[in-house]
Design brief:
Shape: rod-shaped
Distance between the termini: 70 Å
Strand content: 15-25%
Helix content: 40-55%
Structural class: alpha+beta
Radius of gyration: 50 Å
């Protein structure tokens, strides 16, 4: 029993189907060619018989050879044609055979007379043996007077017999089939090889080995794109897997650190190691660590909820200038020390935007906090630009910038650059969460540029539609 979904090799699959298509096409061409050869041969031989009849009439009526009839007709070799040997009769008006290019059987005389119907042309007849013959009839006239007839007869089988042509056709079709099979095999092998290599590499990646090496010399554009795209994907997966492992360790460490601190501080208070004012300070420190851990867990929950669209967004029509003033004021109020100067460049006229006030404040707070962490003392510049249907809020700082190798991953969840990984505690969810919130209100957040002179982000908001 054949398996319905049995898998076969790509080379075998393509080769077998291409060959089947080739053979079907060649078979159709062979049938059409054979029919055409048969028909063309039949027509050509009838034309030869007609030419023979016309030449015979011409020779019989040529007055320059008064005694040429017997010798002319008796010269049988003159009328022997390639592949056929028709019978030629010269008869009088009554149908009596005057001469022929071969002996005439006695029973043929009556049959010859029955062919004379007064019309020239080609006739199809059937003899007593049920064999089909074709007859070419031409009049013999002298001074517009009918003197007799020239009849050229041949069997239908002889007129259509083309054994040699069929053999040549079969040889040609066979050669085309062999050449087609060779071409199909090597072309299929050439196409199947890189795909087979990609499939092998996919299994290698599935097993966790990302060190793949695929051929890059394919001339076919689609195959080259497949190979290069897969190789780039494998390299990115390797990077993401490495990042995931590091981030998992980082997240575990970040969550474990405040728990350890809280446990140690509270245990010191409980065991009486510290008392009085020191105990109160230890409890305050434990509360700070608790708030840090609560913030990180909150970030995890918020990110997961946004990822599955579980947090509803409340869109309101608000003045963008006032929205940014409130966001800056709120962030400044949370800072214990003022070592960062914030410069706000608003629009000259009030422009209304459609946004969720809470989400916008969260996004701006995260951008401000990241900017502050990137510099000891510096300036954050917020500029609002009208872009037609949207507004762009550009946030630029004078910090150290984001390393080039980290810029492609800053919106990846849990990603933390080397400059933050061991200096600033966090889960690496600030920018990914901010981008998701921006997109949830119809806007976007993207990195414009970052170098040693600072970093520039663009936060896009939709203008409010007016009815």
């Amino acid at each position: 029993m054949f398996q319905k979904n049995k898998r076969i090799a790509l080379l075998h699959y393509w080769t077998s189907r291409y060959l089947l298509t080739l053979f079907i096409g060649l078979a159709i061409i062979s049938l059409i060619s054979a029919a055409w050869i048969r028909h063309t041969t039949f027509e050509n031989r009838l034309e030869m018989m007609a030419f023979l009849a016309d030449e015979t009439v011409y020779r019989l009526t040529d007055t320059s050879e008064p005694n040429g009839i017997p010798g002319f007709i008796g010269d049988r070799e003159r009328f022997t044609m390639r592949e056929i040997d028709p019978i030629l009769y010269v008869v009088d008006t009554a149908g009596n055979i005057l001469t022929s290019n071969r002996p005439v059987p006695p029973d043929r005389v009556k049959n010859i007379a029955s062919l004379l119907d007064g019309k020239e042309g080609i006739a199809k007849i059937t003899d007593e043996q049920a064999s089909i013959q074709y007859v070419v009839k031409r009049k013999i006239e002298s001074n517009h007077k009918l003197m007799g007839w020239v009849l050229v007869m041949e069997k239908s089988d002889n007129l259509t017999r083309v054994n040699q042509a069929y053999g040549q056709l079969a040889l040609l079709i066979g050669a085309l089939a062999v050449l087609g099979w060779i071409a199909i095999y090597f072309l299929s092998k050439r196409l199947a090889y890189p795909i087979k290599q990609v499939a092998k590499a996919a299994k290698q990646v599935q097993e966790g080995n990302y060190a793949i090496d695929l051929p890059q010399d394919s001339k076919e554009e689609e195959v080259y794109e497949l190979v290069t795209s897969f190789e780039n994907m494998a390299h990115k997966l390797e990077q993401l897997e490495k990042t995931r492992t590091e981030l998992l360790a980082g997240v575990t460490h970040e969550l474990k650190t405040p728990v350890t601190s809280i446990s140690g501080l509270l245990q010191a208070v409980r065991d009486g190691v510290v008392t009085g004012q020191d105990a109160k300070e230890f409890i305050d420190m434990a509360m700070v660590e608790t708030m840090k851990m609560k913030t990180m867990v909150g970030d995890l929950l918020a990110f997961n909820q946004f990822a599955v669209d579980a947090i509803p967004v409340k869109l309101e029509v608000v003045n963008v200038n006032q929205l940014l003033r409130d966001a800056v004021m709120q962030w400044k109020g949370m800072q214990e020390e003022e070592r960062v100067d914030v410069q706000l460049h608003l629009l000259e006229q009030a422009v209304m935007v459609q946004a969720d006030i809470v989400r916008v404040q969260q996004i701006m707070t995260n951008l401000f906090t990241n900017a502050k962490q990137a510099m000891d003392n510096g300036t954050i510049t917020i500029t609002v630009m009208d872009q037609g249907a949207t507004l762009a809020i550009v946030v630029k700082d004078t910090g150290d910038g984001i390393p080039l190798e980290d810029q492609a991953f800053i919106f990846e969840r849990f990603y933390r650059g080397e400059n933050k990984k061991y200096t600033i505690r966090g889960l690496g969810l600030g920018l990914p969460l901010s981008k998701m919130m921006a997109q949830s209100i119809g806007g976007d957040l993207r990195l414009i540029e970052s170098d040693i002179s600072g970093t520039c982000f663009e936060f896009v908001l939709q203008k409010a539609t007016t009815l």
